[in-house]
Design goal:
Blueprint: E1 2-13, H1 19-24, E2 26-36, H2 39-44, H3 53-65, H4 72-84, E3 91-97, E4 111-117
Antiparallel strand pairs: 1-2, 2-3, 3-4
Helix pairs in contact: 3-4
Length: 119
């Protein structure tokens, strides 16, 4: 299986369990790895035979900016399901970063990574 990766997609969302997170929002960063067969697209040099990663990026940002959820696990699942709706995408790895999570000790990042497939 071939891979198409999008790294560092940024959007502001209002996800979290604390009222301040819901009210003020924060930046979320998403990394994706889409598993698909790129041979048909490469053979014909045809965008219609692969995944349009620009559209995928817009859909991911819409999920982050959309209806708030408590957990980034839930957000990751929504993003994965949106990616799998694209014809040809057989598998997706989603990593959601929450660099401004409300943690009281110094840290660099909080992430949740999931892998989902059609099978």
């Amino acid at each position: 299986m071939d891979r198409v990766a999008l790294r560092g997609l940024r959007a502001r969302g209002h996800h979290g369990v604390f009222p301040k997170e819901r009210e003020e929002g924060q930046t979320f960063i998403v990394d994706l790895v889409l598993g698909l067969d790129t041979r048909p697209a490469a053979a014909d040099d045809d965008l219609a035979k692969t995944v349009h990663y620009g559209i995928v990026a817009e859909e991911v940002v819409a999920e982050v900016e959309g209806r708030p959820v408590n957990l980034i696990e839930t957000l990751a699942e929504r993003i994965a399901q949106a990616c799998l709706k694209h014809e040809g995408v057989m598998e997706v790895e989603v990593c959601v970063h929450k660099p401004d999570a409300p943690i009281t000790v110094p840290f660099d990042d909080v992430t949740v990574t999931i892998t989902r497939s059609r099978v």
